[in-house]
């Protein structure tokens, strides 16, 4: 065990938690100099550079990690990064690879749905968000996105079903969905809207 590597790695983790990104980056870079193929360090550097909006640098670290050990979470992180940098078609490919490797990775299904929706591919968005909703039946963000995708896919009955589902555990998000879809016929579901 290389104690210098361990020291730098754990300093990087600590500084990441403390939101001291420059110090975290320096610590992880020092760890990477000692162990250039450490997956944890490559993933951490990808994450931190992504947090700073350095998309190309972040992508290069994540792709190095994927070349060493392709796993669902790293594919998800790459998809998220690509989506945030506006490269939605590439994000969709990365999210698809993530769910191929782990079909229960709800956040990858969610990201896939949002990327499709951003491209106006509402049927594909619905399919991905339905899967995310099955995995996370009480996540209001997923269900709101699903309701909006159903709305844009011209499925009013399904929007109502999503609103009724949301009403069970998050009436505020249910109200937002009703307002954002212009569904005045559903206002009676949420008292605050009446």
TrEMBL record:
Coiled coil: none annotated. SMART domains: TPR. Keywords: TPR repeat. SUPFAM superfamilies: TPR-like. Pfam families: TPR_12, TPR_16. TPR repeats lie at residues 5-38, 72-105, 106-139. The keyword Iron-sulfur does not apply. PANTHER family: CELL DIVISION CYCLE 16,23,27, CELL DIVISION CYCLE PROTEIN 27 HOMOLOG. This is Tetratricopeptide repeat protein. It comes from Thiobacter aerophilum.
